[in-house]
């Protein structure tokens, strides 16, 4: 079993985060993210780091609205898969979400069993009211567009399941 500490990500971690997610991008489990996108979002990430400084996991929490956040980009190193790192990342993000005052967490995923073990439920219906939806249309964030299920992001979301968790 690998030892690790979960901590907020820092800019020196960004290349390592990209290296962590790349195998899952190659398997079409996660969407690829350029370095500039990761640097812009570094404050949303937490990482799992071993005592010798290796990054073995990452995950991000993006606030979508006053009561709603999205869990993004949870990944663990192939050398630690099955050892609970991904679950620890999600647990940390859930604690952080509560600390921000969020009441619900959203994810768009192929990994329904993983998220289901944490209480996420698949949803088909619109998750926000129509006034909030109209306000969220102003966001330049591609992930928000995926959340809103806008036509121009459909190729990115095909086959994914929309899931929600009441905190």
TrEMBL record:
<protein>
    <submittedName>
        <fullName>Amino-acid N-acetyltransferase</fullName>
        <ecNumber>2.3.1.1</ecNumber>
    </submittedName>
</protein>
<dbReference type="InterPro" id="IPR010167">
    <property type="entry name" value="NH2A_AcTrfase"/>
</dbReference>
<dbReference type="InterPro" id="IPR000182">
    <property type="entry name" value="GNAT_dom"/>
</dbReference>
<feature type="domain" description="N-acetyltransferase">
    <location>
        <begin position="4"/>
        <end position="141"/>
    </location>
</feature>
<dbReference type="GO" id="GO:0004042">
    <property type="term" value="F:L-glutamate N-acetyltransferase activity"/>
</dbReference>
<dbReference type="GO" id="GO:0005737">
    <property type="term" value="C:cytoplasm"/>
</dbReference>
<dbReference type="Pfam" id="PF00583">
    <property type="entry name" value="Acetyltransf_1"/>
</dbReference>
<keyword id="KW-0012">Acyltransferase</keyword>
<keyword id="KW-0808">Transferase</keyword>
<dbReference type="GO" id="GO:0006526">
    <property type="term" value="P:L-arginine biosynthetic process"/>
</dbReference>
<dbReference type="InterPro" id="IPR016181">
    <property type="entry name" value="Acyl_CoA_acyltransferase"/>
</dbReference>
């Amino acid at each position: 079993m690998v030892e690790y500490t979960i901590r907020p990500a820092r800019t020196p971690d960004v290349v390592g985060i990209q290296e962590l997610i790349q195998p899952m991008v190659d398997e079409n489990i996660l969407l690829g993210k350029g370095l500039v996108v990761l640097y812009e979002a570094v404050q949303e990430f937490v990482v799992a780091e071993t005592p010798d400084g290796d990054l073995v996991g990452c995950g991000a929490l993006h606030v979508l609205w006053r009561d709603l956040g999205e869990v993004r980009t949870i990944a663990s190193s192939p050398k630690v898969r099955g050892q609970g790192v991904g679950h620890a990342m999600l647990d940390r993000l859930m604690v952080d979400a509560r600390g921000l005052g969020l009441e619900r967490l959203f994810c768009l995923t192929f990994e329904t069993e993983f998220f289901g073990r944490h209480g996420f439920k698949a949803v088909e219906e619109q998750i926000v009211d129509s006034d909030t939806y109209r306000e969220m249309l102003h966001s330049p964030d591609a992930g928000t567009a995926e959340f809103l299920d806008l036509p121009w992001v459909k190729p990115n979301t095909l086959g994914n399941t929309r899931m929600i968790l009441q905190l």
